[in-house]
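Example (one chain per record):
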Amino acid sequence: MVEPPRNRLISAPDRPADADLMPRVGSGLLGRRVLDLATTPPLTCPPSTPIADAAALMSGRGAGSIVVVDADGAPVGIMTDRDLRSRVVALGMAPGVPVSEVMTTPLLSLSPDTPAFEALLEMTRRGIHHLGVVEGGRLVAVVSSHDMVLAEGAHPLALLRAIEGEGSLDGLAAAASRLTGVVRWLVTGGSSASEVGRLIAELNDRLVARAAELVERALEAEGHGRPPVPYSWLVAGSEGRREQTLKTDQDNALVYADSPPEDDAPSYFALLGERMGAALVRLGFPECPGGFMASNSRWRKPARVWREYFTSWMENPQPEAIVHASLFFDLRPVAGDPEPGQALWAWVCERAPGSTLFLRHLARVAVSRRSALGWFGRFRVERSGPRRGRLDLKAMAVFPLTGAMRACGLSLGLRETHTLERLRGAEAAGLLRPQDAADISEAYEIVARVRLAHQLRCLDEGLAPDNFLDPRRLGRGDRVLLRDALHTVAWLQRFVEDRFQTNLIG
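Predicted structure:
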């Protein structure tokens, strides 16, 4: 029986002035409710209101939108300045037409107590600029991206608009260069490291998707036509888990629908994969040293070949297969047609729980790194070489956490890839006790926060971001928190050893 992790700290000791971690959650925009961001009462009208009258109301208020509500005050849609331009003026719509004919519906709505970060994430994910705040079925406020800009200055939605509006790879590269500034804005606002990862993943997804659109357009202009069959551009590793902070190497792949042997799909997708690989380098994503990219023909295959790959890995878990699994068992589609990628991942998750030997090997990888803590709770740092005195956070903390929850999630057939989502799924399935899950979640946040703060400081000092932390540069309270988090990581490794019986592997 694995003993539970020791009690977590309720609060850290006072941190000295030179402590280097980001602010805790609770300050700035990201510590507020969505209702707090509304600056004016909502402007509304019934569905039968003529367009001209609704536009006059907007003009009189100086508002960029008007919400269409039913007799009970519930929102049924919204008309914005953009709708007026594209659906009324551009199409020569008569001014007496009811606003219900041109409104955008439905209006995304959240409850007043929704954290502002969740509102920001939804607006970024959906590419929208207005959302409703609804209480008891009635509209009480409208929040726009402009409200968020007024609240905090620089804003991820401004970068989103830049990404979506770019018509060239050079312009897209210029937009991508602003991502680090967005990260700084988020951490200054008090966002947790996992929140930063989720939002940056959304922006990275938009960058990749827009790059794919531009590459497809260029191929068509050159006479190569459109994609001959549906395909999904897949991301793997930390991006597949939505856990990126600052940009890392490319880890991607491509799956396309099965097609006849005589089809020209392989030649088309070879061009697409090569062009996308080059485009992503221009956007700041270096090539993967291991070649795990769709520009490599091995990772650019039809669905039937990908199923053969996964079957081989799960049925014959050789060391190379486990290396692949650490990346490709965190897949998700971000560009092209999502269906081939979603179908492949669903197929994998249905079969993984029955692959006992594979899961055991996968779990063994998660426990193969020795504890980051030595005797008397001291940090285990490099003793010689250029990294002397430094702790490898990625190898000794991030890998064990993500690897352990990958094995647990796949053993349960969970389709989620984010480490915390897998953790919640394991708790819901009864695999982990609520307190143990809470401890692991807190350890994850602490490790991710320390890692992100270290990487940002590397940039401040003119260095490339890395994962090698000098614990002596942490404030006293942060050292205590990190040490406690690493104790929980060690406990999780023991739990995984026991759960998957990794000692049975010769």
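Caption: The first strand starts at residue 44 and ends at 45.
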